[in-house]
Amino acid sequence: MEDIRMCPKHGFYRGESCKKCGYVGEVILDKERVEKLGRFISGLLRHYPDKYRLEMDENGWVDFGKLVRVVKRRFKWANQWLVKAIVYSDEKGRYEISNDKIRARYGHSVDVKLNDLPEAEEETLYYGTSEEEASRVMEVGIKPVNRRYVHLSTTLEKGEEVARLRTDEPIVLVIDAKEAKKDGIRFIKVNENIVLAEEIPPKYIKDFIRV
């Protein structure tokens, strides 16, 4: 976890200096508070909006002002500016703010449709995993665990990166998204690295790579 700072030219960023221009700004949110606030926002937008009476639509959007009020009740030092700092400095593109609404773009356990996100154009996708899990999903397919959607990677490199978070002996499964689309499986593009799908039947797993 890194501190969040502000660059006058490029806005919020994480780390010592702005990656776009090298500017070293003052810390506006230290890493301990980044972790606390980030975890709470993630929970509100992905897992338990109802617990805090946040009305979420089918595409995952909640009212930004209402979310800020919930956050301020939990953390007296927080405000809408710091919530925006969490969102806009996040290099993985976890969150989105638009028209006084905020949402998580992926990682949900609550039931969301995400119909306003684009269809993925990639014909091949990748799923990083362990050897043990790879043997199982080759037989039964890839299904979400504690999530609404399966998370797939757009490149082999990203698939390997995900796999190495789980195991020292990573396996990357190669998904034939082109054929799956023909059979009606929907692939949702959430950012340049991540694509979502409800489930991947085993017949679309066309190869596995030891990396």
TrEMBL record:
<dbReference type="InterPro" id="IPR022928">
    <property type="entry name" value="RNA_2'-PTrans_KptA"/>
</dbReference>
<keyword id="KW-0808">Transferase</keyword>
<dbReference type="InterPro" id="IPR042080">
    <property type="entry name" value="RNA_2'-PTrans_N"/>
</dbReference>
<dbReference type="GO" id="GO:0006388">
    <property type="term" value="P:tRNA splicing, via endonucleolytic cleavage and ligation"/>
</dbReference>
<comment type="function">
    <text>Removes the 2'-phosphate from RNA via an intermediate in which the phosphate is ADP-ribosylated by NAD followed by a presumed transesterification to release the RNA and generate ADP-ribose 1''-2''-cyclic phosphate (APPR&gt;P). May function as an ADP-ribosylase.</text>
</comment>
<dbReference type="GO" id="GO:0003950">
    <property type="term" value="F:NAD+ poly-ADP-ribosyltransferase activity"/>
</dbReference>
<keyword id="KW-0520">NAD</keyword>
<dbReference type="GO" id="GO:0000215">
    <property type="term" value="F:tRNA 2'-phosphotransferase activity"/>
</dbReference>
<comment type="similarity">
    <text>Belongs to the KptA/TPT1 family.</text>
</comment>
<protein>
    <recommendedName>
        <fullName>Probable RNA 2'-phosphotransferase</fullName>
        <ecNumber>2.7.1.-</ecNumber>
    </recommendedName>
</protein>
<dbReference type="InterPro" id="IPR002745">
    <property type="entry name" value="Ptrans_KptA/Tpt1"/>
</dbReference>
<dbReference type="InterPro" id="IPR042081">
    <property type="entry name" value="RNA_2'-PTrans_C"/>
</dbReference>
<dbReference type="Pfam" id="PF01885">
    <property type="entry name" value="PTS_2-RNA"/>
</dbReference>
